[in-house]
Write a structure and sequence with these properties.
Helix content is about 70%, strand content about 0%.
Length: about 290
């Protein structure tokens, strides 16, 4: 068992190193498109990104800028995404190792995932998807370790780490709920089957899960400090915080926000236009204004 665990860690580490060797030289050194510019700016100024705020990614990006002062802020956050993406591939390799034993199949699983088009694309730019992939892989790895656990002590340890991982993951991207919802009842059912689920144990699991939400405290703290020049919304009140967390201003449970020409939306379009002008994108700003006005 010890040899198998050592082999699992060695193969997973080798997978992370190999994928990182592919990703890191390919990351963009400037500001990519999409939400990357906003996420980098939020990390630079410790502001609040668009709903639901992405506090964990913002804090990790700020740390990346601190520990990589020799490169530009954009490059450092892009490197962070590449590193997180390579670690996500490692967690997939580790999951296969735990379920089927260390072998080339585990490395193949991590490698194929890393080389897939969308995984590669979002792992070389400053985006939240590589961190989300890491949390998904970590939950799968912990679930596999829980399934293969030898005794009550190991099951208790992996279930608590899994609960913490679920909470932290939901601080990054809410789509992780698609993995959290089936995993939680499965773990509770398994613990009940082994007669290891007590009221105290369930309470500790809930505490570990809620502890994972602590990064969300960053949102009201940043909003109250009001030090960032570019920040989204006001989270100093409970209503403002819930509005941000539930994406009420960003299209909750919808992919595209409906077009409405209310006063609020007109004000938003005006802000976007001014931002485009300030970014030396006058033609783009004029096109945007004509489209929505």
């Amino acid at each position: 068992m010890v040899a198998a665990q050592r082999g699992s860690w060695l193969l997973s580490g080798a997978t992370v190193a190999a994928v990182a060797a592919l990703y890191l030289p390919c990351v963009q050194k400037a500001v990519p498109g999409g939400d990357s510019g906003e996420l980098i700016t939020a990390a630079c100024e410790l502001g609040v990104a668009h709903p639901p705020g992405y506090p964990l990614f913002t804090l990790l990006s700020s740390l990346a800028m601190t520990f990589l002062p020799s490169v530009s802020p954009a490059h450092s956050v892009n490197l962070l995404s590449g590193l997180l993406g390579s670690m996500a591939s490692g967690t997939l390799c580790f999951t296969v190792c735990r379920l089927a034993g260390p072998g080339p199949g585990a490395v193949l699983a991590g490698g194929v995932f890393a080389l897939s088009l969308l995984t590669w694309r979002w792992s070389v730019v400053a985006e939240v998807f590589s961190l989300n992939n890491l949390f998904v892989g970590s939950i799968l790895a912990l679930a596999a370790s829980f399934h293969r656990a030898d005794g009550a002590g190991e099951r208790r340890k992996f279930s608590r780490w899994g609960a913490l991982c679920c909470g932290l993951g939901l601080c990054n991207q809410h789509t992780l709920v698609l993995y959290v919802v089936p995993v939680i009842p499965w773990v509770l059912l398994r613990l009940h089957t082994y007669q290891e689920l007590s009221l105290r144990g369930a309470a500790l699991l809930a505490l570990h899960f809620l502890f994972g939400f602590l990064p969300y405290l960053y949102l009201p703290i940043s909003s109250a400090a009001n030090a960032a020049r570019w920040s989204w919304g006001d989270q100093t009140t409970v209503r403002g915080l819930l509005t941000h967390l539930l994406r009420m201003e960003y299209g909750t449970f919808s992919l595209v926000r409906s077009l409405s020409f209310s006063h609020t939306h007109t004000h938003t379009h005006t802000q976007v236009t001014l931002f485009l002008f300030s970014s030396s994108s006058a033609p783009t700003a004029m096109l945007y204004w004509k489209m929505y006005n």
